[in-house]
Amino acid sequence: MRIDLHTHSTASDGTDTPAELVLNAAAAGLDVVALTDHDTVRGHAGAIAALPEGLTLVTGAELSCRIDGVGLHMLAYLFDPDEPELARERELVRDDRVPRARTMVGKLQALGVPIEWEQVARIAGDGSVGRPHIATALVELGVVETVSDAFTPEWLADGGRAYAEKHELDPFEAIRLVKAAGGVTVFAHPAAVKRGEVVPESSIARLAAAGLDGIEVDHMDHDEPTRARLRGLARDLGLLTTGSSDYHGSRKTVGLGEYTTDPEIYGEITRRATGAFPVPGAGGPRPA
Known about the structure:
It is built from 11 helices and 8 strands. It is globular, with a radius of gyration of 18 Å. Strands 1, 2, 3, 4, 5, 6, 7 and 8 form an 8-stranded mixed β-sheet that branches. With about 290 residues, it is an alpha/beta fold.
């Protein structure tokens, strides 16, 4: 089985629609794909409706969190999307996205960048506007060469010149809420130092003690020594280890299934979840 547990669609900051994403996942030879848009479950219905035969969808979301002043992303899998407390927190984060993005556009303008809000809104479309959309605008303007190049202290990284704070969950509260909604939590790309400051291992240990299920180890932003270190940490803390592409369509160079999760780990995630269940595809044949 080939299993990719971290992807994004146009419901947040990817470039594939939810329907396109599942069809592309099948074409890439995946057996299981998780749709984990930022702080939203809006794309799930479209993905389920288009799900081809032979591909299983894991519903999820990537929750925006912050601990001790450091941002982190928490992957939440197979939770009840209608659980009111968690739904309310997701809504608070989403509602803060537009004011925050407008603030960052204003900061970029003050730095002499000829960016306009209309350009960012066009790029975001119906998605939840965020830094990747602003980064794409910087690429269009020739300010940076790639989206990743915009996530530096010079521009949009945490604490960067054009960075703006947003409403974010306390990760301990996020774990509690996801657990209460029957879901499973995995700390996304915990050692992605190129994105800015990362959470120390002592804090990961605290999160594990609070019920964190796993950490994402095999990821494009982790080199081999980092992956080895994280596997050792996971063993010490009793955490599951996952691998995922963090696919964003054409917004990033990584492809679907470039990093994958061991089937046994996937099986354990599904065993722990009680809020929702993986959805087997029956909507039509897999792409040739």
